[in-house]
């Protein structure tokens, strides 16, 4: 056996061990599946495929090259090449995904996008499989000659005389190198420059950066080897070229696999789990596992730190907005208009169009509000935050919560942008609401909530929700598409709200856009948020059941497969669950008739404005128990109706999530679900606005309100 054989086998064995460990930890350790764990898992699978290719081709390194006995057209060689292509292309495309995910994780920390991650993985898998199958199917057309590479009999048939193939590889590898270098620069640009992180700046996130650096070297070597392989000049073909290429390629691949494995090993929570598993294997007797917090320390701490400042900035902006909005809008004239008559329907649309174009409200966030009630450790950190431009004078025990300097003048770079404030604030007065933003969004009173939210990942939808400590208000992120959808329908929205003052649509009382560039000039993150009333108005423990219903029965059962003794107050139930548990809403008949009438009018409004995917949210709340736990009498919200069968239980009713348009995405969702079910008439959730409204009224409203 030659030196090349043993070298290839050695690298293959190391790669198999590392990649198998990565795959095993992903499958066995639930906490390790969070991003970027999913990308690392995919890279581990690709590296495992590459290792199999090395083992399959290792016998050929000892066979002398014989052009008359070349096996490139054999099925064996085709499958060897297919395995290589699958591993190489998969790792290449997932390296792009790795860099992109790292940049997203360190900046866009306020919310996640589960659908985007699904699309990212789908694209990577489809791209890898399609290209590999094309190369497998058209191998004879691609291959033009037997390349004298390290595999002799089974040669690499991808890069040969067809000039466009090496050119495509040059382009892709060069683009990846630029992307990887940008990612490394992006990491250190967005690394918080405080005491904790600055002292460890060279080591922070080093495990992630090390892998990217190894892929850069691999890409550079791939470009060099491709150039040498496709060159006809004899000076570029040294005698030991095959050995040098083999050792270099295997070294960089194995280095990358080892670094990914090292990322897993360095996690203390995973180490503890491995130790416990090994202990159980050799010592079957019960052993109490030591609980350990999952801390992939440096990367997660960076995310939490940035997330904390983003949440504080959001609340600070709301406080400043409401502290200054009445003066900005000439409140005396506003109240006079409200007292004089009802909302002027005909005048609304005309004035609203003008407001959308000229009367937006800009505000620069005040640092004093962003840093309220920091801990001693956070105070020490904040004093050195040069990148965050903090004012040390604000870090005293008597925090100044009031804005002394608020800028609305054009030409300034705003931190927060409020859409059409005149008419949203008009809705406040129109509904006889009064918001004490300084209390509801106080950074001091919401400190515990902020601390808890730093550790959440956005849930299934990935959106950011903030419930004020007094349970009165909700802040929720919306997408650019949802923002544009609402902007286009604002005249109709205000028209409907003025005509039906007791509409059960969960009203929007403000839309705000936050520019997060003040954290780091390279972030470029803008969040859009809506301000709405909290439908429950009470703490979560007093909510006995929550139903989210659409009028469909397809995939609309939350209790399916759940244990019978499950706590119903801790999960969101759906249409089938309501039919099994409640049947219908048991409220006084006149109230039932009104709710039914209003829900029909609201559904018709959505149909006329081409909106869909809205839900009827019904919450059963024990107000008797809640009133017994508070010092003062709390006013019931107007959308709360007492149960006729259960004392002290009130139904809170509202329509939520109504900013979805009928578009190509919803068309594709409908078609794909019907295709998977092999039933073109399947009543899936995604339907046209007309069908959706019809189903909402007939299958839901008319059914549960009698």
TrEMBL record:
Domain PIPK: from-to ranges: 353-704
InterPro entries: PInositol-4-P-4/5-kinase_core (IPR002498), PInositol-4/5-P-5/4-kinase (IPR023610)
Residues annotated as transmembrane: 6-27, 39-56, 76-97, 118-138, 167-188, 208-228, 243-262
GO cellular component: plasma membrane
Membrane among keywords: yes
Molecular function via GO: 1-phosphatidylinositol-4-phosphate 5-kinase activity; ATP binding
Keywords, in A-Z order: ATP-binding, Kinase, Membrane, Nucleotide-binding, Transferase, Transmembrane, Transmembrane helix
GO biological process: phosphatidylinositol phosphate biosynthetic process
The keyword RNA-binding belongs to this UniProt entry's keyword annotation: no
UniProt name for this protein: PIPK domain-containing protein
Species of origin: Paramecium pentaurelia
